[in-house]
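Handout, section B. The chain below has 349 residues.
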Amino acid sequence: MKRFILLSLAAAAISGIGSTAYAAAKPKIGLSFSDFATERWARERDEMSKLLQDAGYDVVVQEANHDAKLQNDQIKNMVTQGAKVVIVVAEDGDSAATAVDEVAKKGVKVIAYDRLIKTSKIAAYVSFDNVDVGRNQARGVLAVKSSGNFVLLGGSPTDNNAHLFRQGQMEVLNPLIKSGKIKVVADQWVENWDAANAKKLMENILTATGKKFDAVVASNDGTALGALESMRPAGLAGKVPISGQDATEAGCNSIARGELTVTILKDTRKLTPLACEIAVKLAKGEKNLGLADFKLADLAGDKKKKGQVPCKFLQVFQVTKTNLKQLVVDSGFQTYEGVYKDIPNPPAK
């Protein structure tokens, strides 16, 4: 109910921007997603579609199923269908830049949603403070175990965010690594953020280390839960701290069970309306987007990248068993029933 109210209010705000005549023309806005296997993307697709449709726009949605080339073709196809603005969750921030550069020449505006597309031709980049996500993941693990053998599970290597998370993690971990308090005994990247891939990687790590590690810094809930599937039979689930991200229902339920140690709440209820509002403004040719310019070289961690990108980054929050109900359930981000499913003696509603 809280999410419905938030979406309704956001839709009302968006629909009030600009002239009724323009909205009546039913221009198209495209939504290009890398995949829907990741829990959050399907939900955000539905929320974006509702907001934009309520604002008077036709919405074209396509999923690339982790195929970067296909996503580029889909973006160009949306433009052929008449989309003047496309919101993109990029499978590969480098590859998607090719399609963005091409459609930008036709006057099409592209919003990089949550994940950076590495070209200054994007009209906007809206996301969260992804370096701070990594910092909070590392701090959450260190609050339980501040020394010993550590395992690092990065996200998909083609996702720029995965590298920003790692940057934040290492800001926190490096001093302890240099002092000798922490030793990194395994460092792997999980292709496509896939839980099954994380499970296989953890099986290999368990064998290679002889099950002798003390903490796992994993970069999202899916990869953490995949790793826990292998750690559970080894008797390490709930004993070895492990981080996640996205405050998914399954991740939060794992925290309530005492297995996942920490997740990071990125309140997409704020990001989704922001992206839609900017999309509507761009479709209407408005210039004042309320964004701040950042150097692409800094965003991409690549000094060769030129130009600036208009951006907005939202705050993130560390979620542990202590504040799980307050931050996730009481705020309406996840349901009480989902978070505390099969949990004995859950907190009162």
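Note. The chain has two domains: 2-128+267-314, 130-265+318-339. Compare this with the example in section A.
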